[in-house]
Structure formats: structure tokens, C-alpha cells
Give the backbone structure.
Amino acid sequence: MANAKNLLVLPGDGIGPEIIAQVLRVIDWMDRRRSVSFNITEALIGGAAIDKTGVPLPEETLEAALKSDAVLMGAVGGPKWEVLPFDVQPERGLLGIRKGLGLFANLRPAIVFDALADASSLKLDIVKGLDIMIIRELTGGIYFGEPRGIEELENGIRKGFNTLTYTTPEIHRIGKVAMDLAGKRDKRVCSIDKANVLETTVMWREEMTKIGASYPDIELSHMYVDNAAMQLVRNPKQFDVVVTTNMFGDILSDCAAMLTGSLGMLPSASLGAPDSDGKQAALYEPVHGTAPDISGKGIANPLAQILSFSMLLRYSFDLFDDAELIEKAVQNALDKGFRTADITGDGKTLVSTSGMGDAVINELDMLAA
Ligand code: NAD
């Protein structure tokens, strides 16, 4: 088909290949039933790559990622490779591909499906209908700033230090991602900082305000991170898009993830800067890891992986109807009571990984009938 999209699929380790197998069925369904088509290439990453090639990110994998329109990944890592030196462990493959593709924006939606609203540790009325997007800056800030280290002072005293730095281009590019995304949603951005204490985030707030001025139809607000942590559990539905620094985003996105109550349901995207032709590197993956405790048992929840694919359709290809179709199929499967072991409850139909794949495909068939 003329408009075929080139997808690189990286199953990875543990439950990665099991849940990728289900998303491949959804992609095949799309190929047959919708006006979009995909050329799929598979490659190695993580422990699977170490076993076959000795390195967690083979050059061919990075090359294929750079050539593709989008990358869909399972997860990497596991006990088998934990004995290896730190710099050749499977997780280095993930960091390597993020760096190689220049992925600086991490998007984590926190969506509560009605059928699962009671899985949250918060009260039903606080989370029911929740649909927020946390955008975390991924390649700058205190996790990468120099100087850093641990120094020996006198008298056995040691000093540990890290540096929080951001440049204006780093703030502008993540700010633009947030504004553009809000334009496709409820048109509200809340920028989180600690501008009452940290100079770097005084500048963050000033620069975000400048970016906001060039998006007159987006409502921009600012909030200190300590208040944001409280507001996320007090009244999370007040937010639409949240944008913040690397470290604040790391913490707040995990907090927001738990509002939904289940790790097996959470997709994510990491985006790079668009090039002069408008092509934007992007990697989509579930938030969870390789779940070694259940790997090989056929019981993993494939929905975070399937929802990562619907994010891919929306954010890499603007295929909003196709993305919504998948999300509706997932919602219908849950409404009918199908549950993998991690989200099951009284009166629900317990299904395997492929059983949940069947349920989603059945719903897609019915929606498209
Ligand atoms: P994990 O997310 O793999 O598992 C945490 C718990 O959640 C486990 O009990 C697991 O069974 C359960 N779980 C996770 N995903 C599930 C799913 N889809 N369906 C049902 N249950 C699910 O986190 P962990 O145990 O801390 O890490 C295991 C390995 O994964 C480690 O090697 C870690 O480094 C790696 N990891 C990789 C990524 C990634 O590739 N992006 C992210 C996190 C952890």
C-alpha cells in the first residue's frame, strides 16, 4: 500500500515477546480492515540482544530505528543479566536507543477506564473519568548536569553533589511539545517548577511563559512541584497536560500512574525533535518492565502494549480515528468483564494474555462491522 508506515518492533525480554505477539495481531487487523498499512521489521534489544550479539543495543537495531517511522518496544531486563557489568546490562540498550534517537520528551497518559476505576487506591469519584497527560523532559536537568560526583573532604567528611541545569532551547522544545499536544486535547497546560527556590526553574517558568504567549488558544498555568504532588492526589481531574523537568516528571508521573491502579494498563511515548521534513523520532512502550515473576506463563496483561500502539497511531501518524477505535475496543473488552490476573476481581472473566488479545480483536471486529 502506498502509505505503508515503517515500524520497528523490539520485543525485548521477559513478557515483552508475549505482549508484543498480541499487538502484532492488532496491527495485522489494522492492515486488513483500515486504510493504513505497516511494514514491520523486528530487531533485538536488551538481554535478547546480549545473548545473540554480546551487546544490549546492536548497531543494526539503532540503524533500523533511525530509518523507521516509529519504534514499538516491549521491555528489557531480567535477573539473568543482572550479574553483568553495569555498562553492558540490558537497560543500557534502552538508554542507548533513547539517546541515539534524541528522545527528549516522555509522554505518560494517566487514563482511568470506568471498568477499572475501583482498582485505584483513591476514591472512585476522584479518579472516575480521569484522562491527564504528564510530559517529562527526558534528557536534561539534574540527572545529566555537570559537575556531579562524591568528594572526600577533611576529617572523613564526604560531599555528594549534582547540578540542575537547563538551557533555553531545552525548555522551548519541551514546552512546544506540551502546547502542541494540549492543542489536540483540552487546551490546558500546567507547567510544574520550584521557582520559589531554584533559579533554574525561575528561568524555566519565564521561558514557559514566553512559549505560552505564542499559543494564545492554550491556557497556561504554573504550579510549584510540592503543591502539584498534593493536587495530583487531591483533585487530579483539574489537570489536562502537565509539563515538567526530568526529576520532577520522574516522580510525578509515577504518582499519576498509580491513580489508575494498574501497571499492566499504562502506555508511554518518548518523542524527539521534528527534523526539517517534519519527521519525528518516536518510541512507544509500556510503563512496566519485563515482569520476570510471570514471564513464560501466558498471563501477562497485553493492554499497556496495545495502548502504546494506539498512542503511536495518534502521535506519530495523526491517525486519531484508528487510535480511538483501539481504545474503544479495550474499553469494551473491560466493560464486558474480561480481565488478566493482575486486574481481575469478583465476577470477572479471567483470561490469558492471548485471551485478552482475542477479546480486543473481537471488539474491533464488532466496532468495524
Ligand atoms: P515490572 O514492571 O517488570 O514488574 C512489577 C510487578 O508488576 C511484577 O509483579 C509484575 O508481574 C507486574 N507486572 C508488570 N507488568 C505486567 C503486565 N503487563 N501484566 C501483569 N503484571 C505485570 O518491574 P520490576 O519487577 O521492578 O522489573 C523487572 C525487570 O524489568 C527488571 O530487569 C527491570 O530493570 C526491568 N524494567 C524494564 C523497563 C523497561 O524496559 N522500560 C521498565 C521497568 C523495569
Observations:
- Residues 15, 75-78, 91, 94, 263-264, 285, 288-294, 300-301, 304, 342 surround nicotinamide-adenine-dinucleotide (CB under 6 Å).
- The chain has twelve helices and 14 strands.
- The two ends are 23 Å apart (CA to CA).
- The chain has two domains: 1-104+272-369, 111-261.
